[in-house]
Amino acid sequence: MIDVVLLYKYSSKDFMDIDKIIEFQKNLEELTDKVNIKMCFYGKNTIEEMSTFMSYFNLLVGKKVCDISFSLLCNELVTEIGVNNKSIKKSATLTNKISSHEIINIIKDYYTPVMKDAKIIEMPNKDWQSTILDFKGV
Amino acid sequence: MENIKVEIRIKEVLKKRGISQVQLAKMLGISEIKLSRILNGVSIKFDMLAKLCVLLNVEPGDILHVNEGGSAGSIIPMFLDYSGTTDKLLSGGVENLRNFFQSILALERKTNKKVKIIMVTGSSLEAAKSKFTLLNDLAMNYGLQDLFLGVVSEYCGYFSTEDQTMTLMPISAELIQIRPQVQKVLEIHGAHINSKNTTFINSYFDAGVSRVELASACEDLERLLRHKGLAEDIEVLSYYDEYGKEIDVKPKTHTKASAVGMCIEILKKKYDVRLVVIGGDSQVEDLSMYTENKECFESIGILPVFIAPRNIGDVKVGDKNIFIGCWENAEGIISAIQTLTERIITTEDGGFHL
Question: Does A86 sit within 8 Å of B134, measured CB to CB?
Answer without folding.
Answer: no
